[in-house]
Amino acid sequence: MSRINIAIDGPSAAGKSTIAKNIAKKLGYVHLDTGAMYRCIGYKCQMQNVDYKNDEDMIKLLANTEIVLTADGKIYLDGQDVSQEIRTNEAGMWASNVSTREVVRKDLVARQQKMASEKGFVMDGRDIGTVVLKDAELKIFQTASVEARAKRRFLENQAKGLKEDYETIYRDIELRDYQDTHREVSPLTRAEDAILLDTSDMSIEEVTNHILELVEEKMK
Ligand code: DC
Predict the structure, then answer these.
(1) How many Å is the maximal CA-CA distance in the chain?
(2) CATH code for position 109
(3) What range defines the domain where residue 55 resides?
(4) Alpha-carbon distance values, 219 to 9, 136, 195, 215 (Å)
(5) Quick check: is 1 in a domain?
(6) Would residue 40 count as lying in a domain?
(7) Full-prediction pTM beyond 0.90?
């Protein structure tokens, strides 16, 4: 086997994107951060005052939306660089809201499947192993305790100069966990064939190396 597809799913702020990016870089694969796509739609709804629960309006909005994820990690929404704007805690909540809607999921899943029609992708999200890339050769369910995730996100935000207090981040993570696992359409669940990885006490390097070992085993 020369190239495989890798699916990394798990709750918010579990470090999936960081790890997926590292793995893709090491293997020369393409990283696709599907959460960024939901964030773009949530952000656009908010900016244009569109009610995400109105399916008709959402279908129109989706049909007129271009999302481009560049190789160097930039996110373009209708030609505008929104890489920073979509990363706030608030934008995460807007993304979680729009992600409950079937019309949104259908549209974005189709885009993701089209983007990864060949092997050599590392995709991270909530439904990659269960819906988007059901046939991925390696599936990881990456998680960590709420405390560990809130602490990481807090430090990350501080480094970026984003002012969000720890308690708000902690509460929002709990809220998003609940919403992402309880929505009707494709709720966050571990695929039967996904390997569970609790990273609460692991460094980024340890997680990256562990997954690279799993990839090596798969390639044998
Ligand atoms: O991974 P993230 O925090 O950037 O994702 C933002 C939200 O988007 C998350 O709360 C749920 C939703 N999402 C989803 O439903 N399915 C995906 N494949 C990726 C993200």
Answers:
(1) 51
(2) 3.40.50.300
(3) 6-219
(4) 21, 13, 16, 6
(5) no
(6) yes
(7) yes
